[in-house]
Design brief:
single chain; TIM Barrel; six-stranded antiparallel sheet; 2 domains; 33% helix; 22% strand; 492 residues; Immunoglobulin-like; alpha/beta
Length: 492
């Protein structure tokens, strides 16, 4: 597995609208090949096409006009109409390509081109649930969580009777901390038939792409599933399986596709557990929360985690579920945060629109995005940053967290500084970020065996060349003075 890669997420159905003409709706094959090449040139290794699977139009009217959703539509797209509401891509009808996006042959042709640019293609796998009108309800009802009619009568938000199911009542998919998603149906992972069925779906997906981003992957861990659905499972006579679905499924897929990538959306401090079950990467939401709310010292402590865990952590500032980085952090702070997530170990994750400084989070049920002006300052900053992290040392080098120390006895602003370095062969990069709203100073000690007394550092981020005494840097530390939310990325 190659670590320290860079991923780009695209909301496929919305993205394709950019290439519509007056006479035709765009398909994936209509995207100019130059677009994929431009992502490669920016340094992206993984392209996540979010939302390519077939969905059900029939559930839109039933489930996509709740008051909360309408409010989110109003906020994101002032002139939205019913035509813009296309349903959630996470209520999958069946695992076949959305016919409005591509045929299998068209899709594989795009994948082949993306692979030729040394990029890999990631698709969604939604393990917990399917659409409440999924075609599989008729063909494979045994894979879904069923219950007795008395439960249905007592909780009609969580349980429902499908038109084709006769007396059978099913559960909607849910997260145990929130109400059920009424546009979905819950898969029963304590049923052997369900595990085999979903593993087979994974095998099919693996024939179309290079990896999967697994939605809410922790929901189907045995203990989580038991705690969420214990009463229903007991009523139906199901007991906890001896093994975890993820270990079984990942092992099965790896036999035929040994390089296939498994990326988990994960929360609740279960990331390490999922990595142990075979996931190559897991979301690092805790880092995002700290970058938004925690003191700098807390951010630094986050990077004391074990190296193997860090390499498998997905670092991000936004995605389709999160607020836009510029909105949640502000422009200057968001760039400082981008430097942090881009220059530590792990999978660096960027969202379509983030590089242009878009401010509006689009609900996944909408198929049209608002027009926003590109923020040229943000765009230039991301272009420079992506250019810097293309250097081999950020991919193959060794990373080390450094201590920022006081510049003088009563200097306390050093605590605002984050520092680390990358090294590979003869190349070394020092990263120092003032992650605060105050002008701050610190010193950073470096080991400089074999370096001349006159040390020259080139700032790849801010520009400039600095001459320092090697003996002073080793003894007292490199003196650094940075403006709020600014950084040095220095090569020496």
């Amino acid at each position: 597995m190659i670590f320290n890669q860079t991923l780009y997420e695209i909301n496929t159905r919305v993205f394709l609208r950019r290439y519509d003409t007056e006479t035709k709706k765009a398909r994936l094959k209509d995207v100019p090949l130059e677009y994929w090449k431009s992502l490669s040139e920016l340094g992206f290794n993984l392209i996540w096409l979010m939302g390519v699977w077939k969905t059900n139009e029939s559930i839109i009217e039933k489930c996509c006009y709740e008051e909360g959703l309408r409010s989110s539509y109003d906020k994101a797209l002032k002139d939205w109409s019913d035509e813009d509401v296309i349903g959630s891509p996470y209520a999958v009808d069946e695992y076949v390509l959305n016919p409005d996006i591509a045929t299998v042959d068209e899709f594989l042709s795009i994948k082949e081109y993306i692979n030729s640019l040394d990029m890999q293609l990631i698709l969604d796998f939604v393990p917990n649930h399917l659409s409440a009108e999924s075609a599989y309800i008729k063909t494979n009802p045994e894979i879904f969580l069923q219950c007795k009619n008395d439960l249905y009568g007592g909780d009609r938000h969580t349980f429902f009777a499908h038109s084709s199911s006769g007396d059978i009542v099913f559960a909607h998919g849910r997260d145990p901390f929130f109400p059920a998603w009424t546009d979905t149906i819950q898969i029963n992972y304590f049923a052997t038939e369900a595990r085999k069925f979903m593993t087979d779906r994974l095998m099919y997906i693996a024939s179309l792409c290079d990896g999967v981003r697994c939605d809410m992957a922790m929901l189907i861990l045995n203990n989580v599933f038991q705690n969420t659905w214990g009463g229903v499972l007991t009523e139906q006579g199901f007991t906890k399986p001896k093994s975890e679905f993820w270990r079984e499924a990942i092992t099965t897929v790896a036999k035929e596709h040994p390089q296939f990538i498994f990326l988990a959306e994960a929360y609740w401090d279960l990331e390490w557990d999922l990595q142990q079950l075979g996931f190559d990467f897991t979301y690092d939401k805790r880092l995002l929360d700290r970058l938004k709310n925690a003191p700098t010292e807390s951010i630094k402590s986050h990077f004391h985690a074990e190296s193997s865990y860090q390499k498998k952590s997905v670092r991000f500032l936004e995605n389709h579920d999160e607020d836009r980085a510029v909105t949640s952090l502000g422009r200057e702070r968001s760039i400082a945060a981008a430097i942090v997530i881009s220059t530590v170990p792990g999978l660096r994750f960027f969202h379509d629109g983030q590089l242009e400084g878009r401010k509006i989070k689009l609900p996944v049920q909408l198929g049209r995005e608002p027009k926003e002006q590109v923020n040229l300052i943000t765009q230039a900053a991301y272009k420079k940053l992506l250019g810097i992290i293309k250097k081999d040392v950020f991919k193959d080098g060794e990373w080390q967290l450094l201590d920022a120390i006081p510049s003088w006895p009563d200097n306390e602003l050093y605590q605002n500084m984050l520092a680390w370095e990358w090294s590979a062969k003869q190349e070394r990069i020092l990263v120092i970020v003032n992650y605060s709203k105050e002008q701050s100073q610190c010193r950073v000690k470096l080991e400089l065996p074999g370096y001349a007394e006159q040390l020259t550092l080139y700032d790849l981020w801010g520009g400039g060349r600095y001459e320092r005494s090697s003996s002073e840097v080793v003894r007292d530390g490199l003196f650094v003075d940075l403006a709020p939310w600014s950084a040095h990325i220095m090569e020496f």
